[in-house]
Design goal:
Blueprint (H helix, E strand, L loop, with lengths): L16 E4 L3 E6 L18 H9 L4 E2 L8 E7 L2 H9 L5 E9 L5 E5 L2 E2 L15 E2 L2 E12 L9 E10 L6 H8 L13 H10 L7 E9 L6 E5 L4 H9 L18
Parallel strand pairs: 4-11
Antiparallel strand pairs: 1-2, 2-4, 3-4, 5-10, 5-11, 6-9, 7-8, 9-10, 11-12
Length: 261
């Protein structure tokens, strides 16, 4: 009698919990996971808000959001009042990201470049009528790497590991600002360069957007004390950092071996 192969498991891996108390919980969101339902991806069936709710057995309320391809610290409240309190002071929160970009980025630069608001679906609004908003991002180069491969017309290809601290919260701000200074993020299908994205996907096993939210600091709504949450890099992003010899350029808590969740 022929054996029957077991059906593939549909069980989702638990979301890594980075911080939790009586009112808040933070996870390390994987790349490719939407925070909640969105008109930009109607066919998606997996959402962080539902997965975390099922995982911890109670309702959660997103305080902010990360783009679907961006990984890292994502904060939820455990009740609506806390969510409202944190959201009211969210402009004071300090956020830190790391990214891999094309070329040797400046050692340090403040990108002060206004951005036009992008609706989720351009069909819902005339893009030219959307307001232009002030936007600032501090960028610091952490490390460089010269790859011995002719990805474009030069015999070698240069890349940088950068730290980004957005001072404002515009849609796709970091991605658009890095494109503005001609150092687009690797893996950015909308704002990057396809030839580099394809090379990293096909030859370096890095098919994702190489942008991660590695640290979040904010005032706790109960008491006002500062909470600092760090998220280690994961999957192919972490492997690429090792491969390029960039581990020493990052704080240990941003490296996967430090993960505790």
């Amino acid at each position: 009698m022929a054996s029957v192969a077991p059906a593939p498991s549909t069980e989702l891996a638990p979301l890594p919990i980075l911080y939790r108390d009586d009112t808040l919980v933070a996870i390390n969101k994987p790349s490719g996971l939407l925070v909640h339902r969105s008109p930009i991806d109607k066919h998606e069936t997996r959402f962080a808000i539902q997965q975390l709710r099922d995982q911890i057995g109670q309702r959660v309320y997103p305080v902010h959001r990360l783009d679907k391809p961006t990984s890292g610290v994502l904060l939820f409240a455990l009740d609506s009042d806390t969510a409202r309190q944190v959201s009211q002071h969210w402009h004071r929160a300090q956020k830190c990201y790391v990214a891999v970009v094309r070329g040797y980025a400046p050692e340090q630069v403040l990108i002060d470049h206004p951005l036009r608001y992008e609706p989720d679906r351009y069909g819902d609004a005339d893009k030219s009528s959307c307001p232009v908003q002030a936007a600032q991002t501090e960028v610091k180069r952490l490390a460089c790497f010269e790859l011995g491969a002719a990805v474009e017309r030069y015999p070698t290809s240069r890349y940088s590991l950068v730290q980004c601290q957005p001072k404002t919260g515009r849609k796709h701000q970091i991605r658009r600002h890095l494109k503005h200074i001609s150092h687009p993020i690797i893996g950015d299908a909308k704002h990057g360069k396809g030839i580099h994205n394809r090379y990293f996907a096909e030859h370096l096993q890095a098919p994702r957007l190489l942008l991660a939210a590695t640290q979040l600091q904010f005032a706790h709504p109960n008491g006002g004390h500062t909470v600092c949450v760090d998220a280690p890099l994961t999957d192919c992003f972490a492997e690429l950092v090792r491969r390029f010899g960039w581990c020493n350029a990052l704080p240990p808590q941003w490296l996967p071996d430090h993960a505790t969740g």
